[in-house]
Specification:
The chain has four helices and 14 strands. The chain is an alpha+beta fold. The chain folds into two domains: 100 residues, Immunoglobulin-like; 145 residues, Nuclear Transport Factor 2, Chain: A (Roll). A four-stranded antiparallel beta sheet has the order 1-3-6-5, with no helix packed on it. Strand 5 and strand 6 form a beta hairpin. Helix 3 packs antiparallel against helix 4. The termini are far apart. The relative contact order is 0.11.
């Protein structure tokens, strides 16, 4: 009996010991509090690379003012479709409008000198980036300029060259003969009515005639194809007198100037007085000594 009682007590003690150990574990856990969660993973965004402007197609030859000029760009972006990019077009002169990779440039007629035009395209790509564990919007801003192209209003430029020569230079007796040749092309120096011959005529004219006023009555321009050669007919009314006769008289007629396009601009090639066309002249303007001198000195072939 004694042995049975000992065995019974031993079994009960083992059970109590296991219950105490389990209670200790439970109590120890509840005293330390619940386990805290770890920090959240950082936000992620996709890759982002700037767009590439591969080319901007502009005219390869000169353009006339007043015409619409199409401009085309080739743009690539590895992650962003072109429709999600912003395109900003600009030009150093004139106006340009566009939406996307295509644009149109124009400058109104009336410019008197040629100009080099440069088109600039700026592509803006807005993308997501992670800054201090926060997703923010950032931008790639990629500008690129085109090759320059040349623009003229040839008719206006040729008219101005003719006016400048006939009024400001030849038409002003105080201007030396050599200074009158500033807009004559060297490539035409030895033409029949070219630069050298024109200089000789003006030297003779300065010696024999004094001009007191000059007036443009009419101008007509013709440009041939290809557009590197043209003519300007300018009806001029001059007043003045021979150097040995102070009596004022007038001379009127058509002055024909041929012009060539060389080195990105128009130049005067030849100039002569067309004594056969007096259709623009007022009556009684070619009866004096001045008219006779103009015909004698400046007439074609003189």
């Amino acid at each position: 009996m004694a042995d049975a009682a000992v065995a019974y007590k031993s079994r009960r003690f083992g059970v109590f010991a296991k219950l105490a150990a389990a209670a200790a574990v439970i109590l120890g856990t509840s005293c330390s509090g619940p386990t805290k969660p770890g920090p959240p993973p950082p936000p992620t965004v996709g890759p982002a690379t700037p767009p590439i402007i591969k080319s901007i197609a502009v005219p390869a030859s000169r353009v006339e003012a007043g015409t619409d000029v199409p401009i085309t760009a080739v743009v690539e972006d590895a992650e962003t479709p072109l429709t999600a990019l912003a395109f900003q077009w600009s030009a150093n002169v004139g106006t340009i409008t566009g939406n996307g990779t295509n644009a149109t440039w124009q400058i109104p007629k009336g410019i008197k000198f040629g100009v080099d035009v440069v088109i600039t395209l700026t592509v803006v790509d807005t993308y997501d980036a992670v800054v201090n564990n926060v997703v923010v919007k950032q931008q790639f801003v990629v500008p690129q300029a085109s090759a320059p192209f040349r623009v003229h209003d040839s008719e206006a430029e040729m008219k101005e060259l003719a006016r400048k020569f006939l009024v400001d230079l030849f038409g002003n007796t105080s201007v030396p003969a050599q200074a009158c040749m500033v807009d004559f092309a060297d490539v035409c120096a030895n033409f029949g009515e070219g630069r050298n011959h024109e200089l000789e005529q003006i030297v003779r004219h300065r010696a024999e005639v004094v001009l007191t006023s000059s007036q443009v009555l009419n101008q007509d321009v013709k440009i041939f194809d290809p557009p590197t050669f043209g003519t300007v007919h300018t009806a001029m009314l001059y007043t003045g007198h021979p150097t040995n006769d102070p009596r004022i008289s007038s001379g009127c007629g058509d002055y024909e100037l041929t012009m060539v396009y060389v080195g990105n601009r128009w130049w005067i090639c030849e100039s002569y007085f067309n004594e056969h066309d007096l259709s623009f002249c007022p009556g009684s303007t070619n009866n004096g000594e001045l008219a006779q001198a103009l015909r004698r000195i400046l007439g074609r072939g003189k």
